[in-house]
Amino acid sequence: MTVQQSVLFIVISRVGNLIMSSNAVNYPKDCKPVNASTKNAELLKRLKLLSEKLKCEVTNEEADTPNRYQDLMLHLTNSQFLSNKNSDVRLLLACCIADIFRVFAPNLPIENLSLLKGVLLFIITVIENVPDKGSSMYQYYLYLVENISVVETMQIALELGDGAYVILRQLIKQSFNSVNEKNADEHIQGMLMGMCSKLIQGVDQISNIVLDAIFFFIVQPQKINNREAYRMARDLIRSNQTTLEPYVALLLKRGLETGILDECELISQKKLYDLICELHKFAPEMISSALPILVNQMHNEDVSVRREAVRLFGNLFGDQNSRMADDEPEVWNEYLKRFADVNEEIRRICTRNAEDILVFHPELRGQVTDAVILRCQDVDENVRLEVLALVQGLAKRKFEALSERLLTHIIDRIRDRKVRVRHAVIRGLSHLHRTIFSNDELTNLEQSSVSSIFSAIMNHYYQPLLEDRLLTEKIFVLNLIPYKLDENKRMGILINIFLNMNNYGVKALEQILMKQSFQRRLLRNLVKLIEQTVQPQKGKTIDDVIRGIIECNPEPAKFSLVFRQFLTYLTNDKQILLSLKYITGKQYVCQKVESAVLEILQRLRDQKVSVECLDAVRCLFECCSPLQFDGTAVSVLVDTVVTLIKDNIDGSQFNLYYKLIKLLKIVANAYPHCFVNGPTLGSLVELIQIENFSGTESLLELVIAISAEFKHELVAKDMIDKYVKYCECISVNGTPRAAKYAVRCISKLLNTEQTRVKLGNIFQDSLLHISASDPQCCTALKTLSSCVEVDTAQFCNELLEILKTKIMDLLLDRSAGNVVFNQQSTSNNYSEQSRNGTICDETYVQIKKHCLKFVANFLVSVAQFSECDVEPLVRNLLKLYSTLLETKGDIFEKPCSPTHMGEFRILAGSSILKLATKPRYAKFVTADDLITLSTLGYDEESEIRHRFFGKLNKYLMALQLHVEYMGLFALVTLYEDADFQNKVRVLVDANITKRRKCLERSEMKDFAPYYQPEYCIAYAIYVLAKLPSFESTKCEPELRRLAESIWFLLEIFNARKEPGSLEFIYNIFKTIKNSTDSRLQDCTKEELQQKNEKIWALCDIGILLISYRVKNLMKDVESKPLLNSFMQIFKANTKVYVSTSFIKQLKTKKTNTRYKKADTAEEATKSFIRHSLTHNSGKSTKTPSALKVTVGKKNFQASDSKGWDSENE
């Protein structure tokens, strides 16, 4: 009971006592006296009887007795009765008082206004306490409400003057409080609403205390806590809108201008904006007068005021039924400007509220999407994250509201500079990808609209950010190809996404799966070693395995400690070892793998393992556990692929065939054991039975990938027989590329003896087709080459004789008796025009190309077979390749097109590189050959240049070429191609990293000049000095061009910021400048000086570039580079060989736009794609053959120059 009510009860008590002391109480007939001293049980009986009797009484007007029961009223309103705490007593007492009011109507039984006010407040208090509907007192409660509603008892409050506001406030407050979801009754609520409405209409004006009571129920938390009361307050405002509107407008205006809500106790100033928002939902006219003030607040200098106004308008425009944008276009335009507010929190609010606008108001989507897109690149990372949350929310609530443009821009945030944003976007978009593809209600078109998410995340996998790569590997399993979906959905997503993926995404997918396989293989080896009982050399082997596992982690030093802690528990706990054995084995089921992982983690928790160790182990299993592919899943995948191929067998879907088989091959490389089951092998056999199937080459690669598993499975025997027959046919009648894989496939499917028999027959059959007039000549050449590759001992000697005769005759047009290249010899004899307009024969060109490939492949195959004497052949072929390059591919009798001559040039260059990878042949590759080879680096055809640098990088990354070949990368700047230069920067950086790791091995320290990456600068200088365009050191334009080439390599080393690296390069320049080219001894003195000056001038440029563009260079650091013997130390050379004007240009041009990009290499490394070999964990770690021949050599000048000086020997 409130203080106000207590005071009123005291007043009533005193007045009542005075009256009762002078008058006797008159009761209805048969009613016993009601006394306050009576116990509640007896009092309830008497009050019930009294209430029943009073119900039957007619009004005083009808009975013509004006003051009948007035004394009873005064007696019942005594404070002793009104203060009774028993709710039933109070309810019956209220019923009796209400009936007396009915009997006296329209007159008042109480003349004292204070007493009257107290009685009305008592009745309102009783109304608040609603009995349970199942109780006997509920009927009395219902009667009470009906009575005061019909009699309009509450209208008596109008006699109280200003006291009526108190009655109305309490009536609204207590009535609405009395209603909830449990006791909600439309009849009672309607009567209470009617009483409130009549009283609102009856008072002279609406006080703020009344509005306070109403508004209290339409804002939080009452809106949520009591929805029935909210609806009553809403309906009350609607039904009395005309009456309330001016007073509401006055209250809002006063609150917005002064920040004070006069006479309001229930709602505070903080709830004012929420109140406006709620009023707008059901009575928007009520807030129209406040809009100008709110618009001004959006421009207020006070951030807090502006923030609240923007938040309010965001809610108003985002309401489902709002028409404010149409009704108030100027306000809408002002709100849109707030998306670019100077305050980041306001921009976040606008972005957050944009979700509701996009969902509920399609007509505004264009404008809002444009505004949100700009926030994707907001300077504040929290705003950018808010856009991500918006995209996720839209995808869940209403997918069609998500614009493809907006999705594209948020996908771009995968490359955000902030790690927090980048990782949040990757996680959020991957979760969105999973949500969309898991929703069966969405169409294929809608699902394909988000397929770019997969490709973008996969492309990001190439970035040199190890944390990002690790995160990608995790979400690949969790969200991109969700392992918790069933096999059909999972494989369906994989196929759908793969068909829309670009080449970079395909390579990333392949690397992720291969890394999974690689880590599982290491863990499997670890389990085997732990299970071994034989101890000798076991420790060393385990350390090797552990080292391999640790190197796969982005933080190897930290991971090493926790993994060795895990290894202790793995060794001591057999259950953990068994679970790990199951996970890394081949006979597993995806669902059980998850259970095994959880069991390992739980057992580690039980043993109180540190949190760091637990997190590291969990991360390891997240990245390598086979949760996506098992025998069942692969069977579904293969079956789906076969079905798609059969359904699109119209001959025009080659790319589809290729990509589908490529997908199977990628999965097979990582999970070959999953393919060895009856259904899967049966589906693979179906592929070769498809007529005109064009994916033969990829299919055979797939079979080769899984062939190692066939030896352990009898189920594959039937499939092997069918594929061997198929391969025999392909090796003779297929395409050259298919024939190569067919021969390899036979060697993989059969044992050694069976392979020799089959290949012997194929070899003899192929020899019959070595003729220019035979349409299968190219296929035969490739088949023979593959045979010697597979079994060198069996075929090398016989094939060498054939090479010297038949094949060289084909290559050099020496077979005069042959009918060469009859136009009718093949139906696929396409033609192309040569430079002089004559028609060149495509078949002629193809045979030349395959002859060149054949010779190079043959030599590579027999490189380790010393019984085969091929040295004279190698010398002659190197001369042929050099001639091809010098003549730009135009050496054959018949005319060839520029495209074909370009193909000949790249084949010649690739062949030289192949031979240089073999120690047996590398000694024959001279310095002149390297200079000739370098012409491909500045070939006039961009495709030739790109292919050459790709081949060069391939062999360098495999450490099959020495560092001198790395200097050829400097040639990439000779043509303006910024994108390609940036990609090559990444390749060079990857090569440096690869060679740094190689040199970390103790056994490699004595061979630094072969592999230390800084030495590439020396060879770059030598190659650049031999450029035909570099005629004189006085030609400043050419010097500037070559300075760019030198800086291209220097910049990469500079960006890496490795201690001592640039100092060593600085000493290389000084050493070369003090040397002369020993290969120029046959030149005149003037020519010798001129050519040496070119080298010295380039050294000067290199020294100047380091001096001007490198900070904190320690030039005093002494180091002695060991150069090739063709550079002979002459004397100290202090002369500068570039002009003073050029030096000034070089110094001032560091401010030029091209030179402003001091961190270009570093940025390119972060922005462009690393070559797939850089991070391919699945590659062999064996020492390349190029390293084996240099072991034990100490004199670097002699060993390195042996090949380049061979002509002088």
From TrEMBL:
- Where, subcellularly, is it found? Nucleus
> A cellular component term (GO) from this record?
nucleus
Keyword list (alphabetical) reads: Cell cycle, Cell division, Mitosis, Nucleus
Extract one GO BP annotation from the record: DNA repair
The organism's place on the tree of life at top rank? Eukaryota
Q: Where is the major localization of this protein?
A: nucleus
Q: Which InterPro entries match?
A: ARM-like, ARM-type_fold, Pds5
Q: Which Pfam families match?
A: PDS5
The protein's name is Sister chromatid cohesion protein pds5
